Amino acid sequence: MTEIKIESKIDVKEYIRLVFILTYRRRIIRILILLGFILLLWGILSLCNIWYSYGILTYAQLFLAVFILGFLPFVFYHRAIRNYNSNERLKEIITYVFSEKQIIIRGESFHVEMDWEKTFKIEEIKNWFLIFQNINSANIIPKRCFNDESLINFRNLIHSKNLIIRN
Question: How does pLDDT run across 76-105, given as a tens digit for each residue?
Fold first, then answer.
């Protein structure tokens, strides 16, 4: 097998989209969003006197719904921007070389060589590959960095290593 070499540069908009995808796929966040919609609907129905509720409770429901549905995404957005701006490596052009033995990652300020055995898992999501070194740390690679042939070869390689998890 030949080596697969790709270059990646992630801009802030892509990073924000990825953060939202990863955040909103979590079960607890989905439950919170559902709760927010239920509270919003209940509050609106109470204000229209379609569903009876106590006055102060109606406003509390609406406040909590607005907090869940409006303020939390605002917080996630600003946290993503802060993380992106504080991590200089995210802004660099990163070269990945995938071979049968290892992964080589080169940035403008770093060089890492990892054996496949040290890779925790690889997740493939809609427009991304996430290469996890542990449960909390991952290299993120946009799929747009792959051409058709390298994408097929990369998928075959990670399947042969039994590391792929599709979401």
Answer: 999 999 999 999 999 999 999 999 999 999
| DSSP classification of residue 134 | S
- Report the alpha-carbon distance of residue 74 to residue 123 in Å, rounded: 26
pLDDT band for 56, please (50, 70, 90 cuts). low
Pairing of strands 121-125, 164-166: parallel
> Residue 32: in which H helix or E strand, if any?
helix 27-47
| Spatial distance between the Cα atoms of 23 and 18, rounded to a whole number of angstroms | 8
> Is residue 60 domain-shared with residue 108, that is, in the same domain?
no
Indicate if the pLDDT at residue 1 is higher than 70: no
The count of other CB atoms within 10 Å of the CB of residue 66 is 14
CA gap 16, 20 in Å, rounded: 6
pLDDT at 49: 72
Same-domain pairing of 16 and 62: yes
Closest CA to 139 of 161, 159, 114: 114
If one counts the domains in the chain, the total is 2
Sign of CA dihedral 2, 156, 160, 102: positive
What is the residue range of 33's domain?
A: 12-86
Q: What is the pTM of this model?
A: 0.82
Give the type of residue at 90.
L
Paired sense of beta strands 128-132 and 138-142, if any: antiparallel
